[in-house]
Each structure stands twice: as C-alpha cells, then as structure tokens.
Amino acid sequence: MLWGPAPAAIAGARPDPLLSPRGECRRYTLRWYYNQRAAECRPFVYGGCRGGTNRFESREDCERLCGRRA
C-alpha cells in the first residue's frame, strides 16, 4: 500500500484525464480518479506503480482538486 499524497496532489495541478491511472504492477489498492465524461470522481483498483496522475487516495482528495461537478 502506498502512503502519502497522490502524485497530482503533490504537483498541485489538475490530473491528466488521458493517462490511465491504473499502473502496471499487481497490487490491489483502492484509489479514486476523476471521470471527465461523467463529471465525477469514481473508484478503481490501482496496481501500485506507474500509471497516470489522475489518481487519488480518497474521494475527498479527488473532489477537492477536481471539484464536484455532478
């Protein structure tokens, strides 16, 4: 399990919606990403390494950075 803020939160920038947040490893870690089409934060299983910056440890973190649009 990863500890600390998600990459997008560290950078203070909006996540890139085009990059897959899942990553390449095989861990089973619940994370959240912002779904641009649905205009909401949704859960997904993160593999533990790499992946895009559209990845947050909690729904609250996702909504704080991306906003609640739904």
UniProtKB/TrEMBL annotation:
Keywords recorded for this protein, A-Z: Disulfide bond, Protease inhibitor, Serine protease inhibitor
All residue ranges annotated as the BPTI/Kunitz inhibitor domain in the record: 23-66
SMART domains reported for this sequence: KU
Cellular component GO terms held in the UniProt record: extracellular space
UniProt-recorded Gene Ontology molecular function terms: serine-type endopeptidase inhibitor activity
Protein's recorded name: BPTI/Kunitz inhibitor domain-containing protein
Organism expressing this protein natively: Nothoprocta perdicaria (Chilean tinamou)
Coiled coil spans: none
Signal peptide span: none
Superkingdom, natural source: Eukaryota
